[in-house]
Every structure is written in structure tokens, then in C-alpha cells.
Specification:
The protein has 334 residues and is α+β, with helices and mostly antiparallel strands. It is 31% helix and 24% strand. It has an 8-stranded mixed sheet, sandwiched between helices. A hairpin with a 4-residue loop joins β8 and β9. α2 runs antiparallel to α3. The chain is globular and about 65 Å long. The N and C termini lie far apart (53 Å). 46% of the residues are buried. The structure holds 2,5-anhydro-1,6-di-O-phosphono-D-mannitol and magnesium ion (MG).
Length: 334
């Protein structure tokens, strides 16, 4: 079998389709290398003393795990010196991270959730990294928060890694979605699936059911109908899965279809949802749309939302097209 490593894939994309600039290729390779380091740290677990809490809160008011902090540092260190970035932003940092003056600057902005699925870190369940790449507006030397506030449609690249039984990296450059599996002996990501495609129909849904009493009426209506099964209005039985790591739930949907929901709820009525728009919902929505799926906040296409702040939250409905379309219609009906 001819093995296509990530490096070869990117060089061939650049050569044959001219869709990748050299700096963007470098950026993706650096992020992939950082994901390998995170994968190694995650894999060592208790042996390396990396489990447990770091005893500090991040800007979201969540207690950081040691691996959240380690993963954030790995991504910052890997990406600051290559000359491909203008600045970075992370779930774990209140403000954007400026590239130190001693290094050259590039034209891209990198945003990431360094380790998604925090509640699963200490219990040996799949977790991952999510990232999004934007272009720094022209003429901006010192990017500030406002320069990051671009709609998801402006993303030039997005991806995620899942640290599960295998480590995979899933990537889109706006021309399909491709999956690479980490060959641990070689230390390289190898292309294992081109052009992932999410089936338009599904019999599987994904939502944290414990919040049911807090949901808005359209979400209740939609899930009630799914739960009613064969004898209900949908006339088929649905299965449910909730890993509580968005990376793992989305990866399952890219593999076999499904609908993922993290709606707004009445626990914190002032918040539009739990997940963060710029480094969780936007990159995942770009990937899902590129695989033929759909992603909305119940009302609007997520990728078209004009962000107001770096850490803003959003309700998320994504996955198989016909299901996301239906739950979005239920919001409009209401
Ligand atoms: P995190 O970025 O702090 O890990 O939070 C995001 C995660 C998602 O991966 C997952 O879908 C969701 O939070 C799970 O939330 P809950 O614990 O409410 O089910
Ligand atoms: Mg997250």
C-alpha cells in the first residue's frame, strides 16, 4: 500500500491544486507536530504525573487540568518561532498571545481549544485538540482581539485531533475533509481517509439528556419525537451517544452520521450556550459542512455569525443534514 504522510499530502495539494501557501503548510505541520506531543503526554497519563487539577481557573471560570495547561504550552511553544503566525488565541488565555518580538511574524491567526473534553482527561476517555486558522487583516502589525473577530466563513483551515484508542487528525482546507492516523512507530500522520462524508440521514443523536428540564421548547419537541421511536411521529427508533468530548462526538458523526446538540438552556439564561464560537463551534462547523453536513445555532448558520468577543458562546446543532435542518425548522416554528 502506498502510504501518504501528512507532509506528502500537503505538498501534493500545494503542487497539484495550488490551494496551500507555503506558510499555511508549515502552520499545519507545526500544529500536527504539537498534537503528537500532546498525544504523547496524554498517553503517559499517571506515569508522567500529568493527571489531575492545576488548581487555577481559566478565563471561563473553569478549573484547569494539568493537561489543559501542558497542551496550551505545547501549542504556543511550537507555533511562536516559525514565522507563519501573526498571533494566537486559546480557550485557556483571556487575551490573544502576541508573537515575541525576537521572531518574524506571518499572516495567519491561529485559534485553539488545546484540550477539549476536560471532564474526560482523568478517566481515560477520548479527548482532543480543536483549531481554526484565519488570515490576519492586511496592514495589522500587532493583532488585537478585534482582528480575530471574523465570521467562520473566513477560516482558511480547520481541524481537530482525537486522542483515543488511536490518535487521528482531521483536516479541512475548504476542499473536503481528510483523516490522518498517527503511526506511533514512525511518528508521522498517515492519510487513512479522503473526503469524509456525513450521511444526510441518521438514527443516532447526541445530547446531554440530564439538562432536558432546562431546554427550550423546540429542542424538547425534537428530542421527544426522537425518543418516541417507531410508534412516534418519526416512525423509527433512534440510538443515543454522548461522550462529553465534542471532538469524539463529532468524529463519530463524521464516521457514521448523527446529530450533535449543545443547546442554550435555562441554567444560565444569559449565556447563548456552553460551547465557544471561535475555537470550538466554528472549526467544527467548517469541517461538518465540508463533509456535506449542516451546522446551526438553532436559527442561523454558525459560520455566518459575526463574533462579538473572543470567548463568546453559542448553541450548537450539527451533523446529518436532514436532522439539523429539522431541529432548526422547529426553532423557526416556535
Ligand atoms: P471543555 O472545552 O472545557 O472541555 O468543554 C467543552 C466540552 C465539549 O467537549 C463537550 O461536548 C461538552 O463540554 C460536554 O459538556 P457536559 O459536561 O455539560 O456534558
Ligand atoms: Mg472545549
Amino acid at each position: 500500500m502506498r502510504r501518504i504522510t501528512l507532509t506528502r499530502f500537503l505538498i501534493e495539494e500545494q503542487r497539484n491544486r495550488n490551494v496551500i501557501e507555503t506558510d499555511l503548510r508549515l502552520l499545519i505541520e507545526v500544529v500536527a507536530r504539537a498534537c503528537k506531543s500532546i498525544s504523547l503526554a496524554v498517553g503517559k497519563g499517571a506515569l508522567a504525573g500529568v493527571l489531575g487539577s492545576a488548581d487555577v481557573e481559566n478565563v471561563q471560570g473553569e478549573v484547569q487540568k494539568k493537561l489543559d495547561v501542558i497542551s496550551n504550552e505545547i501549542l504556543l511553544e511550537a507555533n511562536e518561532w516559525g514565522g507563519h503566525l501573526a498571533a494566537m488565541a486559546s480557550e485557556e488565555m483571556e487575551h490573544p498571545y502576541a508573537i515575541p518580538h525576537r521572531y518574524p511574524k506571518g499572516e495567519f491567526l491561529l485559534l485553539f481549544d488545546p484540550l477539549d473534553g476536560s471532564s474526560n482527561i482523568d478517566v481515560n476517555v477520548s479527548i482532543g485538540t480543536i483549531f481554526s486558522v484565519l488570515r490576519c487583516p492586511e496592514g495589522v502589525e500587532q493583532p488585537e482581539e478585534k482582528h480575530f473577530l471574523q465570521a467562520g466563513t473566513e477560516q482558511v483551515c480547520a481541524g481537530y485531533a482525537v486522542y483515543g484508542p488511536t490518535t487521528v487528525l482531521v483536516l479541512t482546507l475548504g476542499r473536503g475533509v481528510h483523516c490522518f492516523t498517527l503511526d506511533r512507530e514512525l511518528g508521522s500522520f498517515v492519510l487513512t481517509q479522503r473526503d469524509l462524508s456525513i450521511p444526510a440521514d441518521t438514527k443516532e443523536f447526541s445530547i446531554n439528556m440530564s439538562n432536558m428540564r432546562h431546554w427550550d421548547a423546540p429542542v424538547r419537541r425534537y428530542v421527544d419525537e426522537l425518543l418516541a421511536g417507531k410508534s412516534g411521529p418519526r416512525a423509527k427508533d433512534f440510538n443515543m451517544r454522548w461522550v462529553a468530548s465534542m471532538v469524539a462526538d463529532v468524529h463519530r458523526i463524521l464516521t457514521r452520521g448523527g446529530v450533535f446538540m449543545y443547546p442554550r438552556d435555562a441554567r444560565e439564561p444569559s449565556k447563548p450556550g456552553k460551547l465557544r464560537l471561535m475555537y470550538e463551534a466554528n472549526p467544527m462547523s467548517f469541517i461538518v459542512e465540508q463533509a456535506g453536513g449542516m451546522a446551526t445555532d438553532g436559527h442561523r448558520r454558525i459560520l455566518s455569525i459575526g463574533p462579538q468577543s473572543l470567548h463568546e458562546r453559542v448553541a450548537v446543532f450539527l451533523g446529518s443534514r436532514h436532522e439539523v435542518d429539522r431541529v432548526t425548522r422547529y426553532h423557526a416554528d416556535a
